[in-house]
Design brief:
Order of helices and strands of chain B: HHEHEHEHHEEEHEEEHHEEEHHE
Radius of gyration of chain A: 40 Å
Structural class of chain B: alpha/beta
Strand content of chain B: 15-25%
Distance between the termini of chain B: 74 Å
Number of strands of chain A: 26
Number of helices of chain B: 11
Structural class of chain A: alpha+beta
Helix content of chain B: 25-40%
Shape of chain B: elongated
Distance between the termini of chain A: 92 Å
Largest sheet of chain B: 11 strands, mixed
Mean pLDDT of chain A: 86
Oligomer: heterodimer
Shape of chain A: elongated
Strand content of chain A: 15-25%
Largest sheet of chain A: 9 strands, antiparallel
Low-confidence stretches of chain A: 1-5
Number of helices of chain A: 30
Radius of gyration of chain B: 26 Å
C-alpha cells in the first residue's frame, strides 16, 4: 500500500470484493451506454443508473409534484443508505469508480495531502441550494448529480471520442494494401462493440469534457475531492446514514499509528485521533480495516459514542443558501426573459416531451435520450435559450432528423420528462413545424426570377424535401407553375396539418448553410389532424377539366346522412366508410361532379356499383368495371365506387370514360375479383349489367327499383338476412318480362325457420312443385322459392308459374 | 506532463510538474534523444500515412461478357423467389453471366427504414434468391450493400429484411465505407464528374453488377426504377442531383456498368413514393404487380415497368434521356418481351 506497510492478507478479501463490485457496476454502466440501442430494443431499461439517484429523483419530484419523476429504485438506494451508510459511494457509483481511476493516475502529481481546510460542509450547502431551487421551480440538479455527470461524460464525450479515434485509426490502416481488408473487418468489429457503426457527434462537447476534467483534476488536492466536498448525492446519503448498521468502530488495542488515516480515500479519519470517524464521510471502502496492523477496526451497528465526530454545519450558512437560492430564481428568469428577444429558433423537444415549462423542470439533463437516438438528431442545448435549458435535449435537424419508425427516446427518460409513446402515437405527434424560406428555396427563387421578368432560370426544380418527408401522405406538396420555354417548376409548400416536425426535410435540403426549409419547435404539444386520404384522389386536372373546388369529405354514417339527406340506408348496409365529392369545370359551359365513395371491402363496392347502375346502362371499360348512361358514369375500382355526373352542359362519352380511367389510375388497388358468390348465378338468359351483390333486402329492393321493377319488401323481407348472409341477384329474360333470381346465404342454419315464419305472415296460396314453392304474387306476377340446405333461392316477378319454376331449376343444385 | 501508473516517483510541487513540465530523475531526455525519438516516430507515422494515401491506379470495371439472351423477361406469379429464379433461367441461367470465382455485387434498394410490405425497399426474397443463384453459378463472393441517405443505415438494412435474408443465403452484407468514394469523370450533359463507390466501379472489387430495384412512384422523377436505383452507389451531395434530375440520372448511368437489371415488381408503390408509408398506396395485384422483370437492357426494363403504372416510357424524362445517351432501347415494340408464368 502507498504508505509502505503490508496489508493484512486475510483482510484483503473484502477489499477485493469491493473492487469487484465497483468493476461490475462500472462495466454494467459502460455496457448500458455503449450498447444502449440494442439493449433498449431488447427491453432493458438503459436509464437504470440514472434512476438510482435519489438526489436527482427528489429534485425532479419537488419541481413537478409528480411521483412518477422519482424512480422506486432511488428509494431503494436511499433505504440502503439508511442501513449501510454511504456504501453506494464506495461500492456502486460509477462516477466514484471513475474518480478512483483518475485519482490513481494523478497521484504522482498530488502534493502531500495537507489538511489546510475542511471542505466537507460545502456539499451539504450545495444540496440545500439545489433542493430549495427545486422547490422554487428551477431544476439544476442534473448539473451536479454524479450519475448524470457520469452519463453525460461517457455518452457524449468518451464514447464518441473512442469510437471515432478507433474508427479513424483502423480506417486509415484500411487504406494500406495488404492489410486493408483485415483492418476494415477489425474496424467493423470494434465499432460494433463501441456502440457503432454510426459515429455520433454531440454539441457541448467541450463544456461537458471540461466539467469532467475540472472535477477529476480536483484530485490534485485530495483524493475523491468531489465525493468528500462537493457531491450533493453524497450529502444526501450522508444525511440518510445517521442510523447506519455499518459504522466504523475501533476497539482497544489501537496504537494510534495512523495508518488507517493515511489510507482512507475520503479523509474520514482524523489524523490527530484515528480512533474517531468523521460522521457521514465513510464510504465503507474497508481500506482502514485492511491496513490496521492490530486488527482493531470493525464495522457494526453501534459505534462507540465518543468515536463518532459529528459534522458542524452552520445555521447561518444554511439560511444563506436558502436565500441565495431564492435570489437565483429571479436572476435566471431575468436572463431568460432578456434573451428571448435574441434567441434563435424555438427548440424542438423530443416527441413525448412535456410542455416546455414542465419539461425544463423535470428534465435532469442526464443525456440518455441523446445517447439512444439513432440518427444523432437529439443534441444537448447550450445557453441559447437561457441558462435553464443548458444540456436539455433538443433536435437539430441539420445534424440528424427524427426517424419515423423510432420511438426510443420516449422509452428512456428516468424522470418521465418525456412520456413513453407507442410508435403509432409518436407518428402522429407533432414536435415542430417546417417552414419554407421562399427566398432560399431553389424552385421558389427560380419562379420568382421568372415572374419578375428576368430570363427563365436554368433547371431549378428540386423537391428533395418532399422526397424525404416520411409522413405517408406527404406533408409537403408541390405548387406547380408552368413557365414557357422552361417547363414545370414544382414549388414545395408545407401542409401544416400533416407536418410532424421530424426535420428530414431540413436535413436533406441541398441549399448550403441555412436550409431553405427549417423546422421550429411547436409551443404546444399538438397533434396534427388526421387528413382523410380520400381527398387525395382528386387530381387538379381531369380529362382536360379543371378542378373547381377542394374536395368535400363526408365521414361515416353521420356524414352520409348530411350528404344525401335520406336514402342513405341502403349504402349503410354495405360497409360504407366515407364519401368525397368534387366539381370539375371547363370554363363556364361544362361542369362535372365527381364522387368517390369508399367501402371497407371490394365485395361491397361491387354491390353498391350493381345497386346504383341505372337500367340500360352500357358496359364500358374503365377501372374494374364501369357502365354509362347519357350524363352519368358509374365505375367500381377496388373498394371504391366512382360516379361521374354531368351537371351543366354536355360531355361526350369518351371524355367521361377518359376521366373515369384517370381516376382509376389514381385509386389504389384493383384487379379485385368480383364477389365469389356471383359464380352461383347461372349465365343463360341473364340480362347484362344487372348483377347485384347485397347484404340487405333494402339494397336488393333499391337495385330492382332502379331497374324499373320493384321487389316489394314483403317479397324478400329483412328477416331472411341473418348476420353474415349476403345475396346475389340478377335479372333474367323469361318471355316478355324479366324476372329476378335471388340466391342468398349462408344463413347459419336459420333459413328454413325464417321462411316458415314468413309464409305464415304472407298467407298466400301456394303450391309445392318438386320441393319448390310456387305462388302468385300480387299484381299478376309469380314467384318460386326453394331452400337448399343453408341457402335460399328465389325467383320473383316472373310472368308465369312455369317460367318461375324453370328459372328456379337453373340455379345450381349444389349451393354450398 | 508524463504520467505513469504504479511507478514510484518523488513528489514534485505542482508547478514544476505541470506548468514548466520538468522531468524527474528517470524521466530525462537529452536533446539527442529527443531528436532520435522524434525522427523515429515521425518516420513510422509518415510511412504509414504515405502507404495509405498513395493513389493507386485501379482499372475500372467493364461490362461482363455473358451469354444471356437480350430478351426482356417478365415472370408473373405468386412467389417472389420462384419468379426470380424463373426469370433468370429464362434469360439463360446465372452461369451464363457469372463465372466461377467471380465477385458479384447485388445492389438492392434498401435505403428506407420500412418493412417489406410497404414496398419502399426491394423484396428480400428476390435479393436472397439472386444471392443463391450467384453462389450456385460459382461466385467467389456475393456482396450486398446500399448507400442509404440516412446516417443510420443499420435501421434500413434490418427493417427491409434484406440484410437478414441475404446473409442467410450466404452474402457478405456490409455498410458502405465513408471514404470509399472516388470521383470519376462523366461525359454527361449535366454532370462532368461525380463520386462513385469503389465496390461497383473498380475491376478488382466487382466482376458482375446486378441492379435490383423496386418499382415505385417518385415525386421528383415521377418513377424510380432501375436507372434511379443507381443513386445508391453515389457519394457526394446527392441533393444537388435533384435539379435537372432526369438528365443527371442518365449521366451517372453512363459510368456505372450494370450487367443485369432485375426489377422487383412484386409489390409496386403507386403513390407517395419513394418513402411510402401507407398500405393503400401499395399495389400487389396480379394485374399491375406480382412480377419480376429481368433483362440486360436497363432502359428496356424500366420502359416496361412504366406500363405497370399506366404510363408510357416516353412519359418519363430519364428514360428519354438515357435512350438519347445510347444506354438502351426505349421502344417496347423493338424489344423482345418474354412473359413466363410461375
Amino acid at each position: 500500500m502507498a504508505d509502505g506497510t503490508a496489508p493484512q492478507k486475510s483482510r484483503m478479501k473484502l477489499n477485493r470484493v469491493r473492487r469487484l463490485s465497483q468493476a461490475l457496476f462500472f462495466l454494467a454502466f459502460l455496457g448500458l451506454i455503449l450498447q444502449a440501442r440494442p439493449l433498449l430494443d431488447a427491453g432493458v431499461r438503459v436509464d437504470s443508473f440514472i434512476r438510482l439517484s435519489p438526489f436527482a429523483g427528489l429534485a425532479a419530484f419537488l419541481t413537478s409534484h409528480r411521483l412518477a419523476a422519482l424512480a422506486p429504485l432511488a428509494l431503494v438506494v436511499l433505504l440502503a443508505a439508511v442501513l449501510l451508510g454511504r456504501a453506494f459511494c464506495g461500492w456502486v457509483c460509477p462516477f466514484g469508480t471513475t474518480l478512483d481511476l483518475t485519482d490513481r493516475l494523478l497521484r504522482p502529481l498530488r502534493g502531500k495531502e495537507r489538511p489546510t481546510y475542511d471542505g466537507r460542509r460545502i456539499k451539504y450547502y450545495l444540496l440545500a441550494f439545489i433542493l430549495v431551487l427545486a422547490l422554487l421551480g428551477v431544476q439544476l440538479a442534473g448539473w451536479f448529480d454524479p450519475l448524470c455527470i457520469a452519463m453525460r461524460t461517457y455518452a457524449l464525450v468518451v464514447q464518441p471520442l473512442t469510437a471515432r479515434s478507433t474508427g479513424d485509426l483502423l480506417g486509415a490502416l484500411g487504406g494500406i494494401a495488404g492489410i486493408g481488408s483485415v483492418a476494415h473487418a477489425a474496424r467493423s468489429g470494434a465499432l460494433n462493440i463501441l456502440g457503432g457503426p454510426a459515429l455520433p457527434a454531440y454539441g457541448q462537447f467541450a463544456a461537458v469534457m471540461l466539467m469532467f476534467i475540472a472535477v477529476a483534476f480536483l484530485s490534485l488536492f485530495r483524493s475523491r475531492y468531489w465525493c468528500r466536498n462537493l457531491c450533493p448525492l453524497g450529502a444526501m446519503l450522508a444525511l440518510a446514514s445517521m442510523a447506519s448498521l455499518l459504522k466504523r468502530r475501533v476497539s482497544d488495542g489501537c496504537t494510534r499509528c495512523g495508518r488507517c488515516a493515511r489510507v482512507c480515500g475520503m479523509g474520514a479519519i482524523p489524523t490527530e485521533d484515528p480512533r474517531h470517524t468523521l460522521a457521514g464521510e465513510c464510504t465503507l471502502c474497508m481500506n482502514c480495516r485492511t491496513a490496521c496492523p492490530e486488527g482493531v477496526i470493525t464495522f457494526g451497528p453501534r459505534s462507540l459514542p465518543h468515536q463518532n465526530r459529528e459534522i458542524d454545519l452552520s445555521r447561518r450558512w444554511f439560511l444563506g443558501t436558502a436565500v441565495a437560492a431564492s435570489a437565483t430564481v429571479p436572476a435566471i428568469r431575468i436572463v431568460a426573459s432578456a434573451r428571448k428577444g435574441y434567441s434563435p429558433r424555438v427548440p424542438i423537444r423530443p416527441p413525448g416531451a412535456l410542455p416546455e415549462e414542465e419539461f425544463l423542470k423535470r428534465c435532469i439533463r442526464c443525456g440518455t435520450c441523446i445517447r439512444v437516438c439513432p440518427t444523432n438528431a437529439i443534441q444537448p442545448a447550450g445557453l441559447e435559450n437561457g441558462i435553464e435549458g443548458l444540456w436539455a435535449p433538443r433536435l437539430i435537424p441539420r445534424t440528424g432528423a427524427c426517424d419515423y419508425r423510432c420511438n426510443r427516446c420516449t422509452q428512456v427518460c428516468p424522470t418521465r420528462a418525456i412520456e413513453p409513446l407507442p410508435l403509432e402515437r409518436k407518428q402522429h405527434t407533432a414536435i415542430g413545424l417546417a417552414r419554407i424560406n421562399r427566398s432560399r428555396c431553389i424552385p421558389w427563387v427560380g419562379s420568382e426570377a421568372y415572374s419578375q421578368g428576368k430570363s427563365p432560370p436554368p433547371e431549378c426544380n428540386c423537391g428533395v424535401c418532399e422526397e424525404f418527408c416520411p409522413v405517408p401522405t406527404k406533408a409537403i406538396r408541390f405548387n406547380i407553375v408552368n413557365v414557357p420555354g422552361v417547363g414545370e417548376i414544382r414549388r414545395p409548400y408545407v401542409v401544416e396539418s400533416l407536418c410532424i416536425g421530424c426535420g428530414n426535410c431540413e436535413r436533406v435540403c441541398p441549399v448550403a448553410g441555412r436550409a431553405a426549409i427549417e423546422v421550429e419547435g411547436r409551443r404546444a404539444f399538438l397533434e396534427p389532424a388526421q387528413e382523410s386520404a380520400l381527398a387525395d384522389f382528386f387530381p387538379a386536372m381531369l380529362a382536360g377539366l379543371t378542378r373547381l373546388d377542394a374536395p368535400k369529405v363526408y365521414e361515416g354514417a353521420k356524414g352520409l346522412w348530411d350528404y344525401i339527406d335520406g336514402g342513405a340506408e341502403p349504402y349503410l348496409t354495405y360497409s360504407f366508410m366515407r364519401a368525397a365529392t368534387c366539381h370539375y369545370v371547363n370554363g363556364t359551359e361544362q361542369k362535372l361532379k365527381v364522387d368517390i365513395w369508399e367501402f371497407a371491402d371490394a365485395d361491397d363496392a361491387f354491390g353498391v356499383f350493381g345497386m346504383d347502375c341505372g337500367t340500360g346502362a352500357r358496359k364500358v371499360s374503365a377501372g374494374d368495371a364501369a357502365a354509362i348512361l347519357p350524363g352519368v358514369l358509374w365505375m367500381r375500382h377496388g373498394h371504391y365506387v366512382v360516379t361521374l355526373r354531368v351537371q351543366k352542359g354536355v360531355l361526350n362519352e369518351d371524355l367521361m370514360i377518359t376521366a373515369a380511367r384517370e381516376v382509376a389510375r389514381i385509386l389504389p388497388g384493383s384487379g379485385v375479383a368480383p364477389p365469389a358468390m356471383l359464380a352461383l348465378l347461372p349465365e343463360a338468359g341473364r340480362v347484362p349489367c344487372t348483377e347485384v351483390f347485397a347484404r340487405s333486402s333494402l339494397a336488393l329492393t333499391k337495385a330492382s327499383e332502379d331497374r324499373g321493377t320493384y321487389l316489394a319488401e314483403r317479397t324478400l323481407p329483412e328477416e331472411i338476412f341473418a348476420k353474415g348472409t349476403a345475396a346475389v341477384m340478377a335479372q333474367y329474360e323469361t318471355g316478355e318480362k324479366k324476372a329476378w333470381l335471388v340466391i342468398a346465404g349462408p344463413s347459419g342454419g336459420t333459413i328454413a325457420q325464417r321462411l316458415r315464419a314468413l309464409r305464415l305472415a304472407w298467407k298466400q296460396p301456394e303450391e309445392v312443385v318438386n320441393g319448390a314453392l310456387a305462388f302468385a304474387e300480387r299484381d299478376g306476377f309469380f314467384a318460386a322459392q326453394k331452400v337448399h340446405g343453408d341457402w335460399f333461392v328465389g325467383v320473383f316477378r316472373a310472368p308465369s308459374k312455369t317460367a318461375a319454376l324453370e328459372l328456379l331449376q337453373q340455379a345450381p343444385p349444389t349451393v354450398r | 506532463m508524463v504520467c505513469r501508473l504504479g511507478g514510484s516517483f518523488i513528489h514534485y510541487p505542482l508547478f514544476d510538474s505541470i506548468v514548466v513540465m520538468k522531468p524527474d530523475e528517470k524521466d530525462r531526455l537529452t536533446r539527442r534523444q529527443f531528436l532520435q525519438y522524434g525522427l523515429a516516430a515521425g518516420a513510422v507515422l509518415y510511412g504509414l500515412t504515405h502507404l495509405a494515401s498513395r493513389p493507386r491506379a485501379r482499372p475500372l470495371k467493364g461490362f461482363k461478357t455473358h451469354e444471356l439472351t437480350n430478351a426482356l423477361v417478365v415472370a408473373r406469379g405468386e412467389d417472389p423467389a420462384a419468379l426470380t429464379r424463373m426469370a433468370i433461367e429464362t434469360l439463360g441461367g446465372m452461369s451464363r453471366l457469372v463465372s466461377r470465382g467471380d465477385v458479384v455485387v447485388i445492389k438492392p434498394n434498401m435505403a428506407w427504414n420500412s418493412p417489406p410490405e410497404f414496398a419502399a425497399n426491394t423484396n428480400p426474397l428476390v435479393v436472397a434468391e439472386l444471392v443463391r443463384l450467384s453462389l450456385e453459378a460459382g461466385a467467389r463472393r456475393v456482396k450486398v450493400f446500399d448507400h442509404t441517405p440516412s446516417d443510420d443505415p443499420a435501421a434500413a438494412y434490418e427493417a427491409s429484411g434484406i440484410a437478414e435474408a441475404a446473409r442467410a443465403a450466404g452474402a457478405d452484407v456490409h455498410f458502405v465505407r465513408r471514404d470509399g468514394f472516388h470521383v470519376l469523370p462523366i461525359e454527361g450533359r449535366a454532370l462532368k464528374a461525380w463520386p462513385f463507390y469503389e465496390e461497383v466501379i473498380f475491376a478488382t472489387e466487382c466482376d458482375v453488377l446486378i441492379n435490383v430495384p423496386i418499382a415505385k412512384h417518385h415525386s421528383t422523377s415521377r418513377l424510380t426504377l432501375g436507372l434511379k436505383n443507381i443513386f445508391g452507389v453515389l457519394g457526394g451531395e446527392r441533393g444537388a442531383l435533384h435539379s435537372d434530375i432526369h438528365t443527371k440520372i442518365a449521366d451517372v448511368n453512363r459510368v456505372v456498368r450494370v450487367d443485369l437489371t432485375v426489377l422487383d415488381a412484386y409489390r409496386i408503390l403507386r403513390r407517395h413514393g419513394p418513402t411510402g408509408g401507407r398500405l393503400e398506396d401499395v399495389d400487389n395485384s396480379p394485374e399491375n404487380a406480382r412480377r419480376v422483370v429481368a433483362g440486360t437492357d436497363r432502359v428496356a426494363v424500366d420502359a416496361y415497368a412504366t406500363t405497370l403504372f399506366g404510363l408510357k416510357p416516353e412519359d418519363i424524362g430519364f428514360l428519354t434521356a438515357a435512350h438519347a445517351a445510347g444506354l438502351g432501347e426505349i421502344d417496347l415494340n423493338k424489344v423482345q418481351v418474354v412473359e413466363v408464368k410461375a
